[in-house]
Amino acid sequence: MRTTGVAGPPGKVAEMALSASVWSGENGVRKRLGLHAIVTLFCFLLVPFAALAAELPALTGRVVDNAGIIDAATEAELVQKLAAFEQKSSDQIVVATIPSLDGEEIEPYANRLFRAWKLGQAGEDNGVLLIVAPNDRRMRIEVGYGLEGVLTDLHTKLIIENTMVPAFRAGDFAGGISRAVDDVVMVVEGEGAELEARAKRNEQTGISGMSEDDIIFFVFIALWAVLFVGGIAMAILPRIYGRKLGPGRYTWLGMTFNYNQRSGSSSGGWSSGGGGGWSSGGGSSGGGGFSGGGGSSGGGGSSGSW
Question: What domain of life does the native source organism fall in (predicted)?
Answer without folding.
Answer: Bacteria
